[in-house]
């Protein structure tokens, strides 16, 4: 049994992919290890792991970085800096052997120094994806970098060959996301396309609205919130009218909304992984998403890879996926990403790091 710390500033504030990952990982690892999540938000009740709340200007994250964001001096980066510094005494008191750093930036710098002093092992999951944020993480030579896809693993090995790179995808809880979930009743004309996303520019929900508007009869259900909520709602009502609905629902309720739809879509510019893809597939929904190597690996033959900038083609692909009988292909594809399988790979990694 090892003592494991997971630093996740926004846990308890939002339920994005990173925060869901932290919760699911901690729940699985807690079966064999003593796990603690350090977070700024309020802890959930009845958890199988310990939570330490480090209060430090907790608020919903913003997407716009600008120049200050690029050099880790914007307000969001400084909040993570303060949270990380404030976490140090509790971390040292806990004598953790492994620490997962999920917020990058100053958090990576601080805990690379701390782990060098304490001898703890630093693990960084590649939640940012291929690009400058995870290049920063790799620059500080963690004891293990977890790549979520094969393209990301190859990129990380080319960038910093001396760092240990483990390819472990994100997981889906198949006990909650599965084809037999009861569908949610919705006041939307059927068939329904569903998009689960933060409402930030790079997710391109505005493109999705325009594409659905070009279909003959698809409605669009958006599950999510963010800084673009006003713009997205305005576009949705203008282009789709009664065929548009946006809701904010707890993560635990999302499976029933997936089951109310015929197709899932998230056409973001980039995704390190995209947990919502495998959650939707676990409910046996086909996926229409951006064409790139990472998403081709995740989706396989359970959907359509498209070019979201080509609105007409995007619309045709949504219609095609919605009317195609994929049988059980999406669910079978999602089974490859079961959290039970994923947790086994993490347990192997942790055991090896502790031995070393």
Describe this structure in words.
- This protein has 14 helices and 13 strands.
- With 356 residues, the chain is of the alpha/beta class.
- The chain folds into two domains: 3-171 and 338-355, Glycogen Phosphorylase B (Rossmann fold, 3-Layer(aba) Sandwich); 192-335, Glycogen Phosphorylase B (Rossmann fold).
- Strands 3-2-1-4-5-6-7 form a seven-stranded parallel sheet, sandwiched between helices. The chain has a six-stranded parallel sheet with strand order 10-9-8-11-12-13, sandwiched between helices.
- Helix 7 crosses helix 12 (311-323).
What are the salient characteristics of this protein?
single chain; 356 residues; alpha/beta; Rossmann fold; 7-stranded parallel β-sheet; 6-stranded parallel β-sheet; 14 helices; 13 strands; 16% strand; globular
Gist?
The protein is built from 14 helices and 13 strands. The chain has 356 residues and is α/β, with parallel strands linked by helices.
């Amino acid at each position: 049994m090892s003592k494991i710390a997971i630093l996740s500033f926004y846990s308890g504030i939002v339920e994005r992919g990173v925060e869901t990952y932290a919760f699911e990982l901690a729940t699985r690892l807690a079966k064999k290890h003593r796990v603690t999540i350090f977070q700024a938000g309020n802890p959930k009740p009845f958890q199988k792991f310990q939570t330490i709340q480090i209060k430090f200007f907790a608020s919903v994250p913003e997407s716009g970085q600008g120049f200050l964001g690029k050099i880790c001096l914007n307000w969001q980066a400084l909040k993570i800096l303060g949270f990380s510094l404030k976490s140090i005494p509790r971390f040292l008191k806990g004598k953790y052997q492994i620490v997962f750093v999920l917020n990058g930036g100053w958090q990576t710098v601080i805990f690379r120094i701390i782990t060098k002093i304490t001898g703890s092992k630093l693990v960084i999951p590649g939640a940012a994806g291929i690009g400058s944020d995870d290049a920063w993480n790799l620059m500080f030579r963690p004891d293990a970098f977890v790549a979520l896809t094969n393209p990301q693993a190859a990129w990380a090995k080319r960038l910093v060959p001396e760092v240990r790179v483990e390819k472990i995808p994100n997981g889906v809880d198949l006990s909650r996301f599965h084809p037999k979930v009861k569908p949610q009743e919705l006041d939307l004309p059927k068939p329904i396309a569903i998009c689960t996303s933060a409402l930030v520019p790079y997710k391109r929900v505005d493109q999705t609205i325009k594409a659905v508007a070009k279909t003959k009869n698809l409605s669009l259900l958006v599950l999510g919130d963010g800084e673009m909520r006003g713009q997205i709602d305005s576009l949705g009502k203008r282009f789709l009218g009664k065929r548009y609905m946006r809701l904010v629902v707890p993560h635990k309720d999302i499976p029933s909304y997936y089951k109310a739809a015929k197709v899932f879509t998230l056409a973001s510019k980039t995704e390190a992984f995209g947990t919502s893809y495998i959650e939707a597939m676990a409910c046996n929904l086909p996926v229409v998403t951006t064409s790139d190597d990472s998403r081709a690996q995740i989706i396989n033959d359970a959907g359509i890879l498209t070019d979201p900038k080509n609105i007409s083609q995007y619309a045709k692909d949504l219609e095609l996926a919605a009317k195609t009988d994929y049988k059980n292909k999406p669910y079978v594809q999602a089974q490859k990403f079961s959290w039970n399988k994923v947790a086994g790979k993490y347990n192997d990694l942790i055991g090896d790091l502790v031995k070393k």
